[in-house]
Structure formats: structure tokens, C-alpha cells
């Protein structure tokens, strides 16, 4: 698939894909006779995984470490697992914090509902 196809499939821009390639997040693809990048099909799944890492708060530097380990193959399976386990713990902590924040918001909303329910209804003015 060409870069335009990858842009359409991932929603990432041309510049972003080229930058990912430049910093080592995606391996440089082979090129056709016209010099156009030809990305293998598995690039889509890899970019989707990178998107998950990013959306869960993993920084680019750590993603680059993971990508470099991945490029070395199965000999780095333990290191990749450990990196993902550390990240998973950070994600779990963030989820717990969000849960606590949500509970505070729920409590505050309930307080306002109680106040609203107890407030006397305004009496409409009677016009002569």
C-alpha cells in the first residue's frame, strides 16, 4: 500500500507517517521503481497498536524503545513484555484516579439535585 492508502486507512497525515519513519516508530518501507513508499499490510496493525499506546499515555520516547525492541525480534520478548507491564500499571493507576474523580463529580451533581428538589418553586406573578 502506498502512503496515500495508509493515510486514508489510519487517519494520520503524510508528514506524521514520514516522521514516524524518521524517528524509528515504523520501519522504512521498500520503495517501488518510481521511488514511492510501499508499506506492507502489517503496517496498519502496527500503527493501530502505536495509537493505542499513545491514547493510553505512553510517550514517544518509550514508544521508540518499544519499536526498537520489536525490530530486534523475539529475543526481546521479555523486555517488551516488561515495558508493557510497566505501562499497564500506569494505565491502571490513571483509570483508578479517573474513577475517583468521577465519584466526586457524581457526588457534587447529587448535591445540586438535592438543592434543586428542595428549592421552593417560584410563584408566578398574578397580573390584574
From TrEMBL:
Domain HTH merR-type: 1-69
Gene3D superfamilies: 1.10.1660.10
InterPro entries: DNA-bd_dom_put_sf (IPR009061), MerR-type_HTH_dom (IPR000551), MerR_fam (IPR047057)
Keywords noted in UniProt: DNA-binding
Record-linked Pfam families: MerR_1
Transmembrane segments: none
SMART domains assigned to the protein according to its UniProt record, in alphabetical order: HTH_MERR
Entry protein name: MerR family transcriptional regulator
Originating organism: Siculibacillus lacustris
Lineage of the organism: Bacteria, Pseudomonadati, Pseudomonadota, Alphaproteobacteria, Hyphomicrobiales
Amino acid at each position: 500500500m502506498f502512503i496515500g492508502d495508509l493515510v486514508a486507512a489510519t487517519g494520520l497525515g503524510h508528514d506524521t507517517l514520514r516522521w514516524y519513519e524518521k524517528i524509528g516508530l515504523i520501519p522504512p518501507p521498500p520503495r517501488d521503481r518510481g521511488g514511492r513508499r510501499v508499506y506492507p499490510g502489517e503496517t496498519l496493525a502496527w500503527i493501530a497498536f502505536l495509537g493505542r499506546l499513545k491514547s493510553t499515555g505512553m510517550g514517544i520516547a518509550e514508544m521508540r524503545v518499544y519499536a526498537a525492541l520489536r525490530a530486534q525480534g523475539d529475543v526481546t520478548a521479555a523486555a517488551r513484555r516488561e515495558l508493557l507491564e510497566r505501562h499497564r500499571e500506569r494505565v491502571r493507576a490513571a483509570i483508578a484516579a479517573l474513577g475517583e474523580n468521577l465519584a466526586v463529580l457524581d457526588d457534587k451533581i447529587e448535591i445540586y439535585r438535592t438543592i434543586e428538589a428542595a428549592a421552593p418553586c417560584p410563584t408566578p406573578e398574578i397580573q390584574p
